[in-house]
Amino acid sequence: MTVPASESGIHKRVVLAEADIDRALTRIAHEILEANKGSRDLVLLGIPRRGFPLAQRLAQKIAAVDPTVDPDLIAGQLDVTMYRDDLRRHPTRSPLATQLPPSGIDDKVVVLVDDVLYSGRTIRAALDALADLGRPRAVRLAVLVDRGHRELPIRADHVGKNLPTSSRERVRVHLAETDLIGGSAVNEVVIEDRV
Amino acid sequence: MTTTTSTRTSARTGTAYLIRGGSLLGRGVEDLLVRDGRIAAVGSAAASGAPQDAVTIDADGLVVLPGMVDLHTHLREPGREDAETVETGSRAAALGGFTAVHAMANSSPVADTAGVVEQVYRLGLASGWVEVRPVGAVTVGLGGERLAELGAMAESRAGVRVFSDDGICVSDPVLMRRALEYVKAFDGVIAQHAQEPRLTEGAQMNEGDVSAVLGLAGWPAVAEESIIARDVLLAQHVGSRLHVCHVSTAGSVEIIRWAKARGIDVTAEVTPHHLLLTDELVRSYDPVYKVNPPLRTPDDVTALRAALADGTIDAVGTDHAPHPSEHKECEWAQAAMGMTGLETALSVVQHAMVDTGLLDWEGFARVTSVTPARIGRLGHQGRPLAAGEPANLILVDPAARWTVDPTTMATKGRNSPFRGLQLPGSVRATFYAGHATVLDGRLATPRPVPAADEEAPAWNL
Amino acid sequence: MKHLLSTHDLSARNALRLLDVAEEMAAVGDREIKKLPALRGRTVVNLFFEDSTRTRISFEAAAKRLSADVINFAAKGSSVSKGESLKDTAQTLEAMSADAVVIRHPASGAPARLAASGWIDAAVVNAGDGTHEHPTQALLDAFTLRRHWARVGGTPSAGTDLTGMKVLIVGDVLHSRVARSNVWLLTTLGAEVLLAGPPTLLPIGVGAWPCTVHYDLDDALAQRPDAVMMLRLQAERMNAAFFPSTREYSRRWGFDDGRLALLDALGLDDTVVMHPGPMNRGLEISSAAADSPRSTVLAQVRNGVSVRMAALYLLLAGDPHDDVPEQHDLPALIPEGRTP
User: Fold this and answer.
1) Are residues B7 and B34 in the same domain?
2) Residue B320 region by backbone torsions, left for phi larger than 0, else alpha for psi between -120 and 50, else beta
C-alpha cells in the first residue's frame, strides 16, 4: 500500500497494518513461550517508549495462552537513556522511568522488547542498564521490526518482520498507546523516505 | 568637513582659521574667523578679514558651539597613572569637545595642598589639549576631619575655585558648614558628593525593585536626598554657594527646585549616564554598569532630563572615571565604581536632550559650557560666539552616527557603559584658545606651552 | 539550558523537566548500584569561595553517582585568598578542561559573571551566590513539596506542578538567597507564596514580588499554608540592629512549640515544616518542630542529591553546542506506582 507523497516531500509506505502487528505479536508470544519452555521466570522489559506497550501486549498474549500468568506482573519498563553512547551527539534527553516487575530480574529470563532493531546500540545500552539492576539468568531480545544495518554484534531472538531498508529511510512505529495520528489512535509501521 | 591647509603658519600667533558655513548655536549660518586665540570676526567680516594663509574649514551642516567645560573629571594623576594621566585624559577631553576640565581631587597624593594642585595644573599646561583646572580637596586627605588649606590652593597658580571631596561625602555637618563659609573669602564653591555614609555602607546599586531581585546591597535615594536637603539649608543659613555633584534621583531634583525657589545659591550637575541608563542594566552583573551614585530608575532618568531642561539642574558633568580593566573584570561587589564619559558626553546629551526636543543647541551650550564655566569661575570659557571673545569652540556634526567602541578611545579607561551603542553627533573640530586640538574628528596638535613664561596662567598669552 | 544561574530565569518547562528528571535520579538512589554512566569522562569542579560542606558534598555525591570526575576547589585559603582574581581562577579551571563549574561565592552575581564573561566555556551551576540565589536549594525544596503535595492528593508527582499549594516563607528574606530562589520557582510552578518576617529583614522592592507579605507570623499561619519554610538567621545579622534581640525575634518569628501546636489546632494535618539547614534550634525553629513528623528537613537533604544529579545531567549529558530544547511530541510515559 502506498500513500501519495505528502506536501512536506516525504513519501510514506505502510509496511505493517494493525492486523499485521497483532499477528506478529501473537507469533512472538508463542515463540517466547516455546523457547522458554513455558512462562516460568519470564520477565518482559519494554524499552521506552514503544517497547513498553509492546511488552504489555506480549504479556497479554502470553496470559491468554497460560492463564496462570498475570500480565501486569511480568511486564515492565527499562529506560536506557543514561546508558546510551550517543548522549553527547544530541540535545539532552530526559530519562524515563524504569519499572521492574515486583519479582525483580535476578535469576529471571528477561526478554527485552523494542519496536525497531537498527544499529543495536540501544540494546547494548539496555544490557548495561540491566547489569546495574540485577543478574538475570538469561536475556533475550524481541523486536517488532528488524531493519538491518547493525553496528554491533547483536541479533534478535524474536522478530515480527524483517524489513530491508536503506539507511536514508526512516521506520516509524505508531501504537495506540503512545501515538495519536490525526487525532486517532492507530497501529501501524510506516517507512518514510524523502522524495 | 574638509580643511585646506596652508603651507605657512606663524609660530608666534598660530594658525588662523576661517570657519565657513557653520550654524552658530544651531541657528543662523555665519562665517567665523579664529585668529590669535580669539574669535576675530563673525559674519561677512570673517572672510574679508582672513589672512592669506588662513586655513579654511568647510563647516556646512555643522553646529558651532562654545567648547564644553567639565566640572567633574577624574584624571587619576598623580598616583594612578595606570588608569589615566593628565595627558591621556585631556586628549580624550579634546576629542569629546571639551576645552576645559576640572580634575577631581581624589588623586594620590590627594590634591589637598597648593603643591599638588599646581602640579596637576602644570601637567595640564604641558599637555596643551584642554585647560585643566584642578579641584581642591575640602578636607585633608579626603579624611572628612580637618579642612585642607583651601586658601592656599585658591591663591596658588592653579587658582582653585571648586573644592570637593568627591568620591566621599563631607558628611560631618559642622565641617560642611565651615567649608561653605570659608570659601566665601575667595569666591569658591563646595561641590558636594551627596551620600549619607551610614545609609550606604556596602551599597552596590540603587535600592529598589531590581536590587531586591539581584540581592545586591541597596544605595537608597534618600541617602543622596537627605544630604542635599541638609546642605541647601546650610548654604542658606551661612549665605554660601553650594554645588551638588552628579544628582541622580527625582527626589534630589525636587529638593534643589525647592531650594532655588527660596533663593538659595545652589547649582547642580547631572552625568550623561544618569540621563540615559537605568538600574535594569545591573541585571547583567556586568561591573561596567557599576557607578557611584548608582544608575537609578526610568522615573529618575525622566525627572533628571526634565530638570536639566528647565534649569533646575544647571550643568552636565561627566564624572569621567577611568579604571584599569582588572578593576572591572571581576565580581560586581569587588569591582570599582565609575565609568568613562569624556568621549561620549556630547553624543549622549544630544541623544537624551537635543534629539528628544528637551533642549536646543543653545540650551546644550548652556548646560555643557556657559553654566559650568560660570560655576567654576572660568571667565574665558563658555563665552558667546562673538567677535573679540576667546576662541574656545567646537564644530559638531549632529547628523553623524557612530558606534561606541571603548578600545579605540583616547582615554586609558575601557569602562564605557555605552559600549556597542549607536549614538548621534560627533565632534569634528575643537579649538582651545584658538588652537585646533581636534580637526577632522581626530586629534591634531596640542596647544604649544606659552613660550614666554611656562608658568603663565592658561589664558594670558 | 547551558547554565543554572537562577530560578528567576527558569521557565516552568525547564523547572518541571528538572524535577521530573530528579524523580528518575531519586529512583537510582533507591537501587543497590547507585551509579549511572551518563557523565563518564566529564569533569565537575566544585569551586567554593565560601565554606559549605553540606552543599559541597551534595554536589559531589550527585556528580559521582553520574560517574563524573570531581575536583573540589576550596578557594578559601588558596591562591584566591592571596589575591588571585575570579578571572584567573576561571581560566585555570578552563585550562584543566572542566566541563562544569559548581560555584559557591559570597558575591551576588559571581556565577552569572563567570558564565557571561567568556573566561570559561564550562557550564556554570550556581551553588549559592551572596544574597542573590541558590537555585538547586529551591529545586530540592520544590521537589520535596511536589512529592508531599502528590502524596496528599493521591497522585504521582512526576509531571505535576504545585498549583493550589500555599507556601509560607519565614524570616530573613532580605539576606536569603534561599528565599529569593524559592519565591521565583514556587510561583513559576503555580504555588501561592506568602512571606513573613520583621520589616527590617524584607527587602525594599518586595512589593513587586509575586507574593503577599505579612509582618505577623500568626496572621500568616492563619492563612492555612500547606508548608512553612523557616529561613536560617545568620549570626552576623543578630547584632546589626535589624531586630532588638534574638529573644524577641524568636518569640515573634520563630517556629516554636506553640506554633507547632497551632497547626494542630487549625486542623492543618498535612502542613509540613521545612528548613534549608543548618538550623539554629531554639532560635528560628524549636527542636520539637524540627524533629516532628511534619519536618521535611532530612527529606530535603536526600532530595538535594537527586535534584543536583538532574541539574548536572541536563547541563552536561547532551551536545553542549546544540541548545535546541528537546521536543516532547508525546506525554512522558509514566507507569503507575513504582517498584524499587
Assistant:
1) yes
2) beta
